[in-house]
Amino acid sequence: MKQVAIRVENLSHFYGNHQSLKKINLEIYRNEILGIIGPAKSGKSTFLACLNRLNDLIPGSRVEGRILVDGEDIYSPEVDVVALRRKLGIVFATPVPLPLTIYENIVYGVRLLGRNNRKELDWIVEDSLEKAGLWNEVKDRLHTSALKLSGGQQQRLCIARVLALKPEYIMLDEPTSGLDPISTMKIEDSLRTLKKDYTIILVTNNTKQAARVADRTAFFLMGELVEIDETPVVFTRPADKRTEDYLLGRFG
Q: How far apart are the first and last CA of the chain?
């Protein structure tokens, strides 16, 4: 039986008077890849920001409803938001490596937590880069600038940097939008491997990517969750005509 890791109940989100999410209800299962598709301004990225409370940083942002992560209401006053954001790590569309070495990029957040044991850091670097599918490409140049990596390598470095902080969830917002097909394939291969140890939420405008890697797919439109189901069902027998129209390219 599938274990519910995140339960979203009647989630609405507002920027001032503008409502960006409208009573979203869904469950995310442990160790699945949930793909989220939909046209621009459908609320996909806002949904991710609500999950780890990055929306708190935006003036005028307001949430109604509940998000339960491992049974805990993440909008409860007792929640440690910094710890929550480590637990639900996020990778954005544009890779932003720090102007440091590859090694120091990976351990930057770990050092901020006060962990400086060299052997531990060495292990974290190798483990994180291995999981991100980058170790074999960079293991002989860990102490060169991360800015010299290709765009696809930089994105996998950013995934490794998130993994170094030992999250339980990995959220990705258009992680391959600017990458070539080979780099995209490498990141998708990494996600399939990471699913064994993490729960993954993948926002993508590339419906073919969702079809390739997502176990289930949710379709968002104008702030509403139109439908969510097993990926083959959504792509071959969608329950809502709006989903079919979007997948066939009639809009979006």
A: 36
